[in-house]
């Protein structure tokens, strides 16, 4: 394949498949707060956090890792300010101590942090402002969970995204425009193992570890454990349970890192764990499994480029769609077979709403993976939903694009409605 496409796909995997400790939205808050504390030069007298509706939605009910069970926006931001290490980025809370947690509890009791809904900004937007003793510092994150857009101190702009940085962001976007199902499959077939061994191997190791933790212990609603106890250990159950168990643990405070996809740990686990389980069941080689995981990750990212990082569209569906494509690939399916699996998944589960990060994400993951497995089984029986049926178009690329448009544009009002119901006030997209 063309070297430009090969290198772009490789860079996409390296940029997207990175470790994160806990749900990425509270972690982004903690990262911004840790950075603001460094700029301020210590702990301030007060901290204000300005967040987009989607950040509020995804942080409100999730347990912050290494917090001792605390949850919510203020807890995430204050924990980052007290014990966070900004240089660790998405693992910012890795070194938090019990002493830090005690200080955070005291600060929360004293209303040290105030959260504000920021309207008219990107779906992923955080600004942390610190004040005290006549001093002021602010850090703004926008677009991506670790993308610092602006840094201010005492009225001076220390950093504002330059044109070169904006150009770099545009280059990343342009790379993703090269994604398409046919080239993804070709890349998976041709990629040199030494080019992806580290990034994919790390995903297998970390995501398997947190899944096993979720199955061993009691987290949240225990969706993964319940599936296995209620339905047995058939491969179709195990694939759902392993992915759900990772989310059980992650949404409920487990401090183990995961490898994310499209900025989300839940999506990273949904992309990978069902594929790993099917690879074990079918006893395929490690190399074949890695190539299938390349398919899964890139198909998921391909869909998300149309939807955006945060929206009212549940990202578990896009990730499960990637997993279904990879399962068909593992089975020996060609371009047409993989395309049919993607189409069948979207036709079934497309449009499931995201109502924030919380315990029930594990259940949505299980349902989405079930739909992806059924999509694969339908394809095996030579069945595929036809063009003109709902959002299904003449080819897989147009079907993906249609669903992406619904997620990005059509569900804007849905996003606002969900946020209104969650926080009890009017909000604007």
Order of helices and strands: HEHEHHHEEEEEHHHHHEHHHHHHH
Please identify the top-level CATH class of the largest domain. Answer: Mainly Alpha
The tally of structural domains comes to 2
The largest sheet has its strands arranged as: 3-2-4-5-6-7
Q: What does this entry look like structurally?
A:
The chain is an alpha+beta fold and 429 residues long. It has 2 domains: 25-164, 60s Ribosomal Protein L30, Chain: A (2-Layer Sandwich); 178-423, 2-methylcitrate dehydratase PrpD. Helix content is 59%, strand content 10%. The protein has 17 helices and 8 strands. The chain is globular, with a radius of gyration of 21 Å. The relative contact order is 0.12.
In short:
The chain has 429 residues and is α+β, with helices and mostly antiparallel strands.
Which features does this protein show?
single chain; about 425 residues; alpha+beta; 60s Ribosomal Protein L30, Chain: A; 2-methylcitrate dehydratase PrpD; 2 domains; six-stranded mixed beta sheet; two-stranded antiparallel ribbon; 17 helices; about 60% helix
Q: What topology emerges from the helices and strands here?
A:
Blueprint: H1 3-16, E1 19-21, H2 24-40, E2 46-51, H3 53-59, H4 73-83, H5 98-109, E3 113-117, E4 125-132, E5 135-142, E6 148-153, E7 156-160, H6 163-177, H7 181-190, H8 193-216, H9 223-231, H10 235-251, E8 257-259, H11 265-281, H12 286-307, H13 315-330, H14 335-349, H15 361-380, H16 396-410, H17 412-423
Parallel strand pairs: 2-3
Antiparallel strand pairs: 1-8, 2-4, 4-5, 5-6, 6-7
